[in-house]
Amino acid sequence: MTTVTNKTFDEIVQGDAASVARTLQTGDVRAWAAAFGEWNVFSAPGESQAAASIVTSMLTALVGSNLPGPGSVVRAVSVQVKGVLPIDVAMTARLVVREKRPEQGIVILDGLCTGPDGHVIATATLEVLAPITRQQREVVAHRLDGLIERCKNLKPMLTGVVHPCSADALIGAVEAAEAGLILPVFYGPETEIRKIADKANLDIGKVRIVSTESAEGSALQAAMAAGTGEIAALMKGSLHTDVFLHPIMQKETRLRSGRLLSHCALFSVATYARRVIVSDAALNIVPDTDQKRDICQNAIGFARALGIDVPKVAVLAAIEMINTKMSATLDGAILSKMADRGQIVGGIVDGPLDLDAAVDADAARIKHIASPIAGLADILIVPNIEAGNMVYKNLVFMADAQTAGLVVGARVPVILTSRADTAAARRFSAAAAVLYADALARDPTILRPETAE
Fold first, then answer.
1. CATH class of 258-409
2. C-alpha span between 279 and 282 (Å, rounded)
3. Cβ neighbours of 100 (radius 10 Å)
4. For residue range 146-164, what is the model confidence (pLDDT) as tens digits?
5. Could you tell me if 424 and 404 are in contact, meaning their C-beta atoms sit under 8 angstroms apart?
6. Which CATH number is 2-138's, of 3.90.70.10, 3.40.50.150, 3.10.129.10, 2.60.120.340?
7. What are phi and psi of 110, to 5 degrees?
8. Sign of the alpha-carbon dihedral angle for 393, 394, 398, 402
9. Distance separating alpha carbons of residues 116 and 349, to the nearest angstrom
10. What are the domain boundaries of the chain?
11. Are 86 and 115 in contact (CB under 8 A)?
12. Three-state SS string across the chain, please?
């Protein structure tokens, strides 16, 4: 949760300013264009209603969240789009107070949207009725861009990038480094890595490379370095996931914590007003009840590290009633009771719940489901890897969700990226790893909480 405080009319002075950066994805623009029935999604400047609407929404959101803030009423907006919206790079929206009209309690704001190189994308004028009393609101964190913002006061994390023998793997690591999130160390065949970097026009001159001869050798050397504290995190390159994870689970590397490794995928979905974590969609194929207990506990620790004080965990099944022929419903009931008995701690666990009841309070009400999780789930525990994989890909490819993925349960964060991940997803995953490591250093119980046995 974030506390947002306004500025009253009397406190506002000419020249006051506020800004926010937002990285648009292709799906953002397409979604707006579909709403306006536009076929040419990326039209020329000034021709797209979708572009004008996106700019307007960014500026009016900044009014409501910052200048003047809660209690503001936007009376009029005039927008002029002068450039094509940038995709997958940051666009900055800025508001500046031009004048105050005391007799009406109105402030006039100049709006400006610029690209990463400072070129003007849009200008605007907003007429806003400013609040006259102090107001505060608690806002649930939603967009994942905030993860990167939270890392700005933290040191970049020394990260072993394992076998980055593809352009995508190198680009992901380099961009995370440019964002100030990691200091990469490449483990892989040096000659091949340099050839790929040259072909992709990537500057890796300052990156240390530990040369290896195979993917297996890359994974082992990086895991050994993480186990001795030489590096603080691991990032998957272009090798297979099982090859990447195998040495992490070996006693010799000293990365095991005694807990099952599981994957946590953090999502920001436009149609859901809070971030949600899905686990496990990548590692554990058909986890039993004891393994799901660890998956729950890992996900709770991950959520706490990202700022959710008491995560609400929904153990999913096809129905919300217990059916002895459906093992997922039994697991939901058992895990819920285990949480009641202190065998799972740090969050509120309920199950079985079907997906609609977990994320939609109206659906739960219609079905007469009384649950502290209904419509408020922070974590979704899926029955098996097939269900998790389908939820994951549906949210990414059909709901235009932002995502960040991390393997938790080891002594260091493990960034598990996919070949299909966007550059933004790689950055968000690196940011999640930095925040997780920082939280773990301050509170080791995130990984190893005291539970009843």
1. alpha beta
2. 8
3. 18
4. 888 889 889 999 999 999 9
5. no
6. 3.10.129.10
7. -90, 130
8. negative
9. 43
10. 2-138, 258-409
11. yes
12. CEEEECCCCCCCCCCCEEEEEEECCHHHHHHHHHHCCCCCCCCCCCCCHHHHHHHHHHHHHHHHHCCCCCCCEEEEEEEEECCCCCCCCEEEEEEEEEEEECCCCEEEEEEEEECCCCCEEEEEEEEEECCCCCCEEEECCCCCHHHHHHHHHCCCEEEEEECCCCHHHHHHHHHHHHCCCEEEEEEECHHHHHHHHHHCCCCCCCCEEEECCCHHHHHHHHHHHHHCCCCCEEEECCCCHHHHHHHHHCHHHCCECCCCCEEEEEEECCCCCCCEEEECCCCCCCCCHHHHHHHHHHHHHHHHHCCCCCCEEEEECCCCCCCCCCHHHHHHHHHHHHHHCCCCCCCEEEEEECHHHHHCHHHHHHCCCCCCCCCCCCEEECCCHHHHHHHHHHHHHHCCCEEEEEEECECCCEECCCCCCCHHHHHHHHHHHHHHHHHHHHCHHHCCCCCCC
Percent pLDDT > 90 in the chain is: 63
Show the tokens assigned to 232.
Answer: 């603080």
Residue 158 region by backbone torsions, left for phi larger than 0, else alpha for psi between -120 and 50, else beta: beta
| Residue pLDDT, tens place only, 316-367 | 999 999 999 999 999 999 999 999 999 999 999 999 999 999 999 999 999 9
Strands 90-101, 106-114: pairing is antiparallel
Average pLDDT for the chain: 89
Work out whether the CA dihedral 391, 397, 402, 404 comes out positive or negative.
Answer: positive
- C-alpha 242/C-alpha 417 separation (Å) is 13
Q: What is the pTM of this model?
A: 0.78
The per-residue pLDDT for range 297-309, each reduced to its tens digit, is: 999 999 999 989 8
Q: How far apart are CA 150 and CA 434, in angstroms?
A: 10
> Which residues, 6 or more positions from 377, have their beta carbon under 8 angstroms from its beta carbon?
276, 312, 313, 314, 353, 358, 359
Q: For CA atoms 321, 326, 328, 332, give the dihedral sign.
A: positive
For residue 156, say if its preceding peptide bond is cis, omega within 30 degrees of 0.
Answer: no
Distance CA 125, CA 110 (A): 5
